[in-house]
Amino acid sequence: MARVTSADVARESGVSRTTVSYVLNDTAGVTISADTRQRVRDAADRLGYSPSAAARALRSGRSDLVLCVLPNWPVGPVLDTVLDELTRELAERQLSVLVHHGRGARPLAELWRAVTPRAVVGFTEFGAQDADAMRRAGIPVLSTSLDDDPRAVFAVPQTRVGQLQAEHLADAGHVRLGWAGPAEPRLADFAERRLAGVRAECAWRGMAPPVVQEVDLDVRSATDAVRTWHTAGVTAVAAYNDEVALAVLAGARARGLAVPDDLAVIGVDDVHAGRLSDPPLTTVAQDARVQARSIATAVVAALDDLPRPDPEPGDVLRVVVRRST
Amino acid sequence: MARVTSADVARESGVSRTTVSYVLNDTAGVTISADTRQRVRDAADRLGYSPSAAARALRSGRSDLVLCVLPNWPVGPVLDTVLDELTRELAERQLSVLVHHGRGARPLAELWRAVTPRAVVGFTEFGAQDADAMRRAGIPVLSTSLDDDPRAVFAVPQTRVGQLQAEHLADAGHVRLGWAGPAEPRLADFAERRLAGVRAECAWRGMAPPVVQEVDLDVRSATDAVRTWHTAGVTAVAAYNDEVALAVLAGARARGLAVPDDLAVIGVDDVHAGRLSDPPLTTVAQDARVQARSIATAVVAALDDLPRPDPEPGDVLRVVVRRST
DNA sequence: CTGAAAGCGCTTACAG
DNA sequence: CTGAAAGCGCTTACAG
Predict the structure, then answer these.
(1) Are the CB atoms for B68 and B123 separated by under 8 Å?
(2) Residue B283 in contact with residue B275, Cβ under 8 Å?
(3) Shortest CA distance to A87 belongs to which of B70, B190, B186, B188?
(4) 3-class state of residue B102 by DSSP
(5) Burial tier of B191 (Cβ tally within 10 Å: 0-12, 13-18, 19+)
(6) Closest residue by Cα to residue A210 from A247, A249, A169, A256
(7) How many CB atoms lie within 10 A of CB B45?
């Protein structure tokens, strides 16, 4: 079963490959009779012709693909939504988004060379070597970052997340805070920054630094942490995310502590389970749509060679107050 | 900034492009002096050469990419893990996995033609037209399905999920069951099948059919549903998944019903939040690793033109008993 | 042991 | 208005 090529269409419709190409690509600046156009179109349809992207890519040196490289951390609901939206936004520009779960399984270089993408979006920092190589190949490289970074097209300021948590708790009158970190080592980069935000806010308000505890996603680990906090006089805990916060809730329950009276808890992400817990979880919500739109805009700007739009992290984050604080 | 080609490497190392290709691809059946090999390798390194995948694809008609097409439903933790594992497994075969969040944004045909993948894995059913076109192009098409389907390489039997739930509840002595369906319309295909499983098990045991309620992921909706069930004499609820089950838990709490004494609840997925809820959630867990391995095996078999291995859905599912039942 | 040449399928100056 | 030809970068029979 040989592949149908433009030569086949040309033969079938009695014109040259040039004409086929002109007609099928609606090339500007050529005039071709409506009759010929129709013949070519019909032939293409009849034969089920569709151009070889490999040949096109070779010829033009570019494709219509945008490669998204995911980092080595678990994909949560926020990133999932971002990818969704990004796919939709870029589709309007005839671009297809391809996601690589880049758990470092294969060298990144082989991947992007194999794909010949129009642009690469990294939800993680690329090695300088990879980034340089891609830029040399003329591929715009866009990366998001965990905090403000002048090279990033978009940054969710992770320190700001922690800061918002601490601010919310301090405003409610708590003076001794705890921090519940994730056990998952792949989240360390995020965790450090969020914790730094909590620390900074505490320092700024003249409060003692937060009492840090690592909390596994099980009741026993959380119970131990809660005991430590209670002993240390902690009255409110900022958790790495909602899952960890739910563990803290479970730990408090196991210790017979009332939330928020004995211990207040705030998470991050606004997951569904946090709305349904007892008590419902106060949390820092991230607006995935705003993030996706920012990234999409940056990609499009890079392709059009426009100046990079300003990242607008401003209203991505907001505190959703529920009954756990 | 021109691209470095094999011609550059040839010039730099004083040999022909043929020799460059032989050396760099370790082509079998040619003998090239160790000295020459070394010169070529050095030159390639020095120049930062890496072959154009587009040219290779054009030449050979194939790439090293496996395209995974995701369906139009939200990606949960199970699918995320499956993709992770699949990426890892296929990396061992020098294949890169590319995931498309195929929310139908662009026609599938454009995508696979642009990628020229070695194989396509669909976590959803393809249209017959697309599937045929890919097969005609010599691309193995593997699809998973929601239930047993002879054409699928892998099926998580969704009816079996519901059946396991009902079985567990009936074994515990419940005779009047409720079913909590998801409000998210994109999950309808799954929901129908799981519900069918519950229905079948009830019928088989001579029990009344389950009382069906749609439950939003908020307390109000769940409370309404719980009232209805209570009125109908329902003592146990099988929920579409753990999130819905957590909503039912919240609804029972709001109505002052004790779980499991007044109302037992079982979910699906074994998410973290279900281990941390009050009470912890009994659930049907799916083994993502087994799923991923099955799919990977099927992909590899298809590429090697081996007969398709038997799907082995047997031990993918298991009931994890916690205190909500 | 190594090189000149063809060809994968496309697009686009260039020439009629 | 349409066609012959070059060339994108690679691999691989084929010829030395």
Answers:
(1) yes
(2) no
(3) B70
(4) coil
(5) buried
(6) A169
(7) 10
In chain B, what are the domains? Answer: 6-51 (1.10.260.40), 63-156+289-314 (3.40.50.2300), 158-286 (3.40.50.2300)
B235 Cα distance to chain centroid = 33
pLDDT of residue B116: 76
What is the Cα–Cα distance from A210 to A195, expressed in whole angstroms? 9
Say which DSSP state B220 is in: H
Q: Is A47 left (phi over 0), alpha (psi -120 to 50) or beta?
A: alpha
Q: Please tell me which residue lies nearest to nucleotide C8, judged from CA to C1'.
A: B59
Q: Which residue in B has a C-alpha nearest to residue A134's C-alpha? A: B3
Are A293 and A88 in contact by the 8 Å Cβ rule? The answer is no
Per the structure, the residues numbered 36 to 55 in protein chain A that have their CB within 7 angstroms of any atom of strand C are 49, 51-52, 55
B222-234: average pLDDT: 96
Q: What is the pTM of this model?
A: 0.84
Identify the CA nearest to B43 among candidates B16, B76, B73, B83: B16
What backbone torsions phi and psi does residue A268 show, to the nearest 5 degrees?
A: -145, 135
Residue range A26-31: mean pLDDT, rounded? 79
Residue A214's φ and ψ, nearest 5 degrees, are -90, 135
Whether the per-residue pLDDT at A122 is higher than 80: the answer is yes
Q: Which pairing describes strands B154-155 and B119-122: parallel, antiparallel, or unpaired?
A: unpaired
> Chain B closest CA to A77's CA: distance in Å?
8
Give the best-scoring range by mean pLDDT among A63-72, A140-149, A270-279, B100-109. A270-279
Give the mean pLDDT of chain A. 85
> What is the rounded CA–CA span in Å between residue B56 and residue A112?
14
Q: Is the dihedral of CA B250, B252, B258, B259 positive or negative?
A: negative
Chain C bases having any atom below 7 Å from a protein CB: 1-5, 7-13
Local structure of B53: helix, strand or coil: helix
Which residue in chain A has the smallest CA separation from B253?
Answer: A278
CB contact under 8 A, B276 and A217: yes
Helix axes A219-231, A242-254, angle to 10 degrees: 70
Distance in Å, residue A11 CA to nucleotide D5 C1': 18
pLDDT in tens, B13-43: 888 888 888 888 888 777 788 888 888 888 8
Q: Which tokens sit at B280? A: 């912890």
pLDDT band, very low/low/confident/very high, at B248 (cuts 50, 70, 90): very high
Characterize the bridge pairing of strands B211-215 and B177-182: parallel
**B178: confidence class by pLDDT, cuts 50, 70, 90:** very high
φ, ψ (nearest 5 deg) of residue B32: -130, 135
